[in-house]
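for ur thesis appendix - Alpha/beta hydrolase. copy paste whatever u need, i formatted it the way the template wanted (i think)
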Amino acid sequence: MMLARRALLAAPLLLATPARAQPRPAIVLVHGAWMGAAVWDRTAAALRTEGFEVLTPELPAHGADPMPAAEASLERYVQAVLAAIGDRRDVVLVGHSFGGIVAAAVAEAAPERLRRLVFLAAYLPASGDSAYSLSQRDPGSLVGRFWRQEDPARTSPASIAREGIVETFCADCIAADAAWLVANHRAEPVPPLATPVTLTAARFGAVPKAYLVTTEDRTLTPGFQRAMLQAAGITQVAELPTSHTPMLAAPSALAAAIASLAQP
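the 3d part is after this line
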């Protein structure tokens, strides 16, 4: 009788044994303006140690990409990300800063390939918005103060004044990371920043979304980030107590936050 009782008690435990965990999704990390794919290196490495496949596409005319700034366009950025995604499905697409505009356009182009969009301290557009139009709603940003552009017609590449790069993007970085950020600052093609995106409820709107707010941000102020995510109806929200560039200031914490948001 004792053996039979033990068998009956064990039966529910056997029935409750969970099924094998689903494979982890691929994570695609899209950098923002004035930066390149290398900014993700430590965050990508941390995610890979957790079993994720991680892709960090270089946007044309950014980082080490040889394209001249005059040839860059939002469409070329979108195509670069789509090429990185390839035939993968169930992808978690993370857009940082201006990369949020690119990620939104990718979602409109190929929603069937995405599990979730994650906006990291990112511009979160409605249809018809551009990074430039959205930036006009954030007067507390330091970008306008340090914006430098030679061409009065505002078509030449723009830079952030050298003395303002760290204050704007990563005031909480250690000295070595701050020096790296300054050394790798590359002038930004301007026309893509002013290119509006066309988004539909059936495509972009169908992709689940999350937002990571950086609470010490001087590039996209926290209040502006929250206003965008609230206007978009996003309820899956996490916060990081960092500057605009947590991939340098807190790469492990950022990786943990992305990994959490990547789960079904």
